[in-house]
Amino acid sequence: MLTVGIDLAAEAARTAVAWVDWSAGRARIIRLVAGADDDLIVEAMLGADKAGVDCPLGWPDKFVDFVCAHRAGDVRVPEGLVGRAWRRDLALRVTDQVVHEQTGLTPLSVSADRIGHATMRCAALLAELARRGRPVDRRGRGAVVEVYPAACLKRWGLPYRGYKRAANLTELGLLVDRLLEAAPWLDPGEYEPLCRASDDATDAVVSALAARASALGLVGAPTAEQEGTAATEGWIVLPTTSLDRLVTDA
Q1: Name one Pfam family in it (predicted).
Q2: Maximum Cα–Cα distance across the chain
């Protein structure tokens, strides 16, 4: 099996893609690119058995409705709610709220934070996949799933904060150490130095591991009530098992 992890940013400079090959109880990083453009990302997705994208696959349905109502001049605030309370469902998707309930972490708001720029890029990439005959099921049932590296790391008992940006290379190195200790079956090969130098690259690798968990069915799924919303907003797949199951279930 080949899984791909994509740490998607608004521009290529902060985007990384990892290819991980799985066989015989082992996993090997066979390619890792920091500074990935759209063409490379699309080709990586098309060639993968499962691809995990660290980026929202959609916007909150209620936010979309709100923008449409605003355009028509007909915004209505829900009765009995004031301030942040009525804006919560505009800022956070259902899956974001589920992730918070289950992990204590809150994903960036696609409608009220800068990650919206990356999501615009992601929307164009998903459209290109559809044009090439591989439409994406935003609920995570197809070849592309939405992932959240910080939540995966926390679920796996690994450091999940404080390793971002050049000022925290020591912490990033410690995360790589812990990851390789927890997953001795993962061979980073020639790409270990890049993981230690780039948090984007490391997040791409974690995204590829999350894609493997999804491929094996070792992740949470939306409930029947959440299905319709997940189909439009997207759904973050959270691992439900330890790292070791990623190879023992091969």
Answers
A1: DUF429
A2: 60
